[in-house]
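Problem 12. The chain below contains 259 residues. Write out its predicted structure in token notation.
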Amino acid sequence: MAEPRIRVEVEDAVATITVARPEKLNAFDIAMLQELSAACDAVEANAAVRVAILTGEGKAFSAGGDIRAWAGMEPNEFGHAWVRFGHRVFERLATLRMPLIAAVNGHALGGGLELAAAADIRIAETQVKIGLPEAGLGMVPGWSGTQRLVKRFGAQAVRRMLIGGEVLTAAEAQTLGIVDQVVETGMGVPAAKAYAARVAARGPAATEVSKLMVTIANGEDNGAAVEALGSMLVAKTGDLKEGVAAFTEKRPAAFKGEW
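Solution.
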């Protein structure tokens, strides 16, 4: 059986998701997108996990999409099986219930930057290069490079990378707010673990709700975030318990409006 190319390791309250295809600079194919989606489900289902770390194995964070995985696709297949599916998986990653910290241990270009952008916090090693080279290949970003990145980092930073073809150093990316912290080579994961420990020590319910509230304020995933907040609030009321009991017992509900 082939080794998983998306690994999940849990230590105390911290889950580490590692993209593990170093021989291809952690470039994604369809199977890896499927693995990443399953990893998100596994991490979110673990009630003990309060914060997650995302990183890459070897010298790269991620080179994005493996060109050989999609180059032979017909336009419809490319649009649906590759772009839309990848977009959904990255959205799943971005909307994990717990904070996500990207330990950007190597170059994050194209889809690799879109992957890092799904995190709430990005810690990059000093040697890292960051950019959106898609237009140079005659294509456009497909995994929220023109959407999430603009909302989180601002339109001008994205214009410089996508239209101007600028490749940024970690330090330059930090000045633009794309990277939150820059550390020495080899220190990305240790720094992310230290940050994760600080996050895990905070109130888990307050942290989760705060993440949703910031998501709403930033214009991301508004509908789902609002309904998640409302559902969590209502689920803690006596009315919900009474309504379920009444349905099960086939009797009229006696709601009291208790919070």
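Discussion. The domain at 6-200 is CATH 3.90.226.10 (2-enoyl-CoA Hydratase; Chain A, domain 1). Students who got a different answer should revisit the alignment rule from Section 12.3.
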